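Project standup — Tuesday

K.O.: blocked on the structure for the chain from last sprint. Re-posting the sequence here as requested.
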Amino acid sequence: MQSTVTAVDVSAPTESASTAVSWGPIVAGAFAASTLTFILMLLGSGLGLSMVSPWSGSGASVTTFAVSTAVWLIVVQWLSSALGGYLAGRLRTKWVGIHTDEVFFRDTAHGFLAWALATLLVAGVLGTALSAAIGTGVQAASTVASGAAMGASAGAASASTDNATSYFVDTLFRPADPARLAAANPESDAAATAQASRILIASAAAGEISADDKTYLSRLVAARTGLSEADATARVDTVIARAQDAKVKAQQAADTARKAGATFSLIGALSLVVGAFIASAAAALGGRQRDDEEAIFLTNR
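H.V.: unblocked you, prediction finished:
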């Protein structure tokens, strides 16, 4: 009795010739997201300019402007990510013979890639245009935030420091009798002004004025303005106090700007992460709707 053995040929799995990445839909979604970002940023810049005002008490507060800006940037990121991801998923060609889980992964990956490309386009190619579009609004916000704060830091250039202290120097040498101004010696006034400027600069850098400098400055003011030494000392004390107050206000404005910058960076990073998730989810939704619509079309046909 003979037994027949049937050989079973086991064919090796064949690799698909088509790539899993469809760059056409990814680029299309990225361009759509970038364009929507640019449009919304222009709209936000217009709304921001309508909120601020150079007139005291006429515009929105600094806190309101900062919160509104952060919220708007988040809305822009989410809307543009959703549009770009959805188009990347909806426009891709249908994958045949692919497991459902693999299709879901590829769709989410396409949405993520569209978001990444759009982010690079906005940060690079459109960066200059966006800066020009919102630059005026940022400048207005900075003016509102800084107010009328004056003063110079110890590491600033000498020209900037001279400009910051010129008003205080003029206050020091304002004559008690305005008629004395015409009779004053210009060269002597220039030397006295230079000395007072150097004293104020050194005092601002040290954080206080020494007793010797204060005494000399008081006598210098008394000699140039005709005030008594007591009145000159009182004027020096007043100007130094005002200069110190201006320095504190400038430091507070700088600290406020630092905190606002840190908050903006953290919110921006979180918004980008959420935008990536939204783009991936929107791409999965768009891909599933495309496959469902095609399945319904083939069934009805």
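K.O.: great, moving the ticket to review. Residues 5-10, 144-160 have pLDDT under 50 and may be disordered. The CA atoms of residues 196 and 217 lie 7 Å apart.
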